[in-house]
Amino acid sequence: MADGSAPVSVVIAAYDAERTLGAAVASALRQVPRPAQVIVVDDGSRDGTAGVAASFPDVLLLEQDNQGPSAARNAGIREASQPWVAFLDADDVWLPGKLARQLAAWERHPAAVLLAGDWLRAEPAGVAAPPAVTDPPETLLSYRELLVLNRFQTSTVLVRADVLAACGGFDPALDGAEDWDLWLRCAKLGTAVKLDVPLVVYRDEPTGYSKDLPRLYRRMLTMLSRERVCTTLTAAAFAQVVTWHHLRFALAFLLAGQPERVRDVLRELRVAGLGRHVPAATARYLAPFLGGRALRRLRRS
Q1: Inter-residue long-range contacts of 249-258, CB under 8 Å, 24+ positions, other chains counted
Q2: Is 256 contained in some domain?
Q3: What was the pLDDT predicted at 130?
Q4: CATH number, position 10
């Protein structure tokens, strides 16, 4: 842009985020180039969240009754003035160079509709010095790869505003899986690019939507049921993916010490007539997934 800012509107949905919001906003405003617009949507907070947002003179503050993360992000999207929209959760922090790396990737992939990246769970030392914007390793992800697993953490994602308008934004009925659902819809309209470098410090809140396994499982099933109608996969390929998701949630409930939910998942798998797809789903998805987890643990030990 003429003033040197990035053609990006940042949407920060915040609920009772007085403690963390300031660091999130500051990390966006410290980007070089700086985003042209930063929007904070206070989703009916009961603490001083709005006051923290208002303390930044360059931030647009929107306030609404509590409606959940999808409705809050959609409110921010409606006020976005730039051709790209970036999402930042109020308890996360962007690393220096985040936007610059993604905008450089856009130049390499002009057909991209969505750009994301990796994330860290702890802030590294020395983040005040922006890293050089070189060409990092990157992965172009297909619709099928995104259907197999939600590979994007929301605070890493940069999406074209016209694509968001075409997709209709986040679906509040799917809160807990709403981000995954949106990435899938975006991937049908163009290229999704993942930079294989950390762009965000992700602060893992145990009370977040994504930590409620039963709710996430139910919302995922709703999403997959809708997706079945418009998927680009064959019926057999789609059934294998759905079977894999049942199997991975059975494993997740087992590791969480909830055997009764494991039984419920396996029962639903049988009722849905997916039993015959278990061998293929295990070989194609579950076995590599477990092997990858084991390998990562060995590397850390």
Answers
A1: 249/213, 249/217, 249/220, 251/286, 252/213, 253/213, 256/213, 258/213
A2: yes
A3: 47
A4: 3.90.550.10
Instruction: Write b or e for each residue in 176-214: b if 16 or more Cβ atoms lie within 10 A of its Cβ, otherwise e.
Output: bbbbbbbbbbbbbeebbbbbebbbbbbbeeeeebbeebe
Q: Which of 167, 172, 205 is nearest to 187 (CA)?
A: 167
pLDDT bucket at 295, cuts 50 / 70 / 90: confident
Write out pLDDT tens, residues 238-282: 999 999 999 999 999 999 999 999 999 999 999 999 999 999 999
Q: Domain residues for 274?
A: 233-300
Q: Model-level pTM?
A: 0.91
300 contacts: CB under 8 Å, gap ≥ 6: none
Check whether residue 50 and residue 182 sit in a common domain: yes
Lowest pLDDT segment from 40-54, 133-147, 214-228: 133-147
Same-domain check for residues 19 and 65? yes
Residues 6+ apart with CB under 8 A from 58: 29, 38
Indicate whether 211 belongs to any domain.
Answer: no
Do 75 and 196 belong to one domain?
Answer: yes
